[in-house]
Amino acid sequence: MASITDLRQKRAALWEKTKKFLDNAKRENDMISAEDVETYEKMESEIVALGKEIDILERQAEMEKRLNSPVNTPVLETPKTNGNTKTGRASDEYKQAFWKLMKNNQLSYSVHDTLQIGTDSDGGYLVPDEYEAVLIDKLADENIMRGLTTIITSANGDKKIPVVASHGEAVWTDEGSEYTESDDEFGTVSLGAHKLSTIIKVSEELLNDSAFNLETYISSEFARRMGAAEELAFINGNGTGKPTGVLNTAEVGVTSAASNAITTDEIIDLYHSLRTPYRKNAVFMSSDSTIKAIRKLKDSNGQYLWQPGLQAGQPDTILNRPIHTSAYMPEIESGNKILLFGDLSYYWVADRQGRSFQRLNELFAKNGQVGFRVFQRLDGKLILPESVKTVQMK
C-alpha cells in the first residue's frame, strides 16, 4: 500500500500535469473544447479521489496513535494510588455498571445504586467520563468545524461571553485642555443549550453475540449522525432550536459580480477584506463545487490560486492559507455565501458536560430490536462577526 507521502507526491504531480493540460487547452481564444473539458474533469476527479484517500489514511494514523498510547501506569512493585482513585463517572464501577445495563439490561440493586450519580432528568444515564472523551474525539473526526473552533464545557446554565463592541480612542490634547473621554463599549454573547438527539437500533441477536462491540458501534454511529448534524448547524444554523451558524453572523466581505461564477479578484478582495490581525490564523472554507471552480483560477503572475498540500498533515491552500471542504457550505447560486475566510477560533461551541444514553427495551421489541436513545446539549455562535468574511453571490 502506498504511504501518505507517496500519495501526496502523486497528487502533486498529477496537479502539475493537469495545470499544463488546462493551459494548453486554453490557448485558442481562451476557450476549452467539450472534449478537453471531459479530459480535464477526469484528471480533476482523480485529484479529488487522492485527496479523500489521504484524509482517510491520516485519520486512521491518528486513531492508531491514540489507540496505541498507554492507557494506564504499569505496576512496578507495590501498587500506589497516590490519592488519585477515580470516583463518580470516571470510576471502573460506574463504567462496568453502565455497560451491563446498556448491553445486557442488567439493573440489579448494586448497578442501580452505582448509576445514580449519572442519572439525567430524562431517564437516561450519563456516559462514563473516559467514553465521553472517545465520543468527542470521534465527533472531531466527523466534523470539520470542531477542529477549527473554540470548544468550552460547562455544567449548566447559559454561558455569557463578554465582547468588546467598540474601542475607545486616544486624541491629541492641547496643553492645559481637558482630557477627552473615550470608553470601550462592551456587549455579551450568550451560549445556551440546544438538544441534539438520535435513536440507534440494534438487533437482539447482535447484542447477544459476544463478538459484537457495542461501545465501538455506538461511538462510531453517534459520531456519524451527530457530527453531520453539528456541522450543518455550525455553518448554516438559524439559532432557533439549534446553534447559530457562522454564515448567519459573518460579515459579507465581497459581493460577486456574477450570480454563477467567482473570479480571482473577488477571492483576493475577500482576503484583504479581513483585518490583518485575523489573517494569521485564518482559513478558507467552501464546498467541493466551489473548489472545483477555484482550481481553474490564476493570480496576476499566472500561478494557480489552489495549491495541494505536499506534506503529511498539511492542508491544501489558497493564497497560502488553508482551504477546508464541507458538504454543508452552499453551492454557487445567486444569493448564497459560497466561500468564507476568517479565524474560526472566534466561533465558540459550548458543550454541556455529559452525553446521555438510554436503553429502550419495549419501543422496538416487536421487530426484535433494542433502541438506544442518545442525546447531547450544546450551542455555538460566532462571537466576533468581523473575524470571518464571506463571498456572497450576486
TrEMBL record:
Family matches, as Gene3D superfamilies: hypothetical protein PF0899 domain (3.30.2320.10), Major capsid protein gp5 (3.30.2400.10)
Phage capsid-like C-terminal domain sequence ranges: 123-392
Main localization category: virion
Pfam family, one: Phage_capsid
Keywords: Coiled coil
Stretches of the chain forming a coiled coil according to its record: 40-67
Domain of life of the organism encoding this protein: Bacteria
Keyword Coiled coil part of the UniProt annotation: yes
Record keyword Coiled coil present: yes
InterPro entries named in the record: Phage_capsid, Phage_capsid-like_C
Subcellular location(s) of the protein: Virion
Name of this protein: Phage major capsid protein
Native organism: Hominilimicola fabiformis
Organism lineage: Bacteria, Bacillati, Bacillota, Clostridia, Eubacteriales
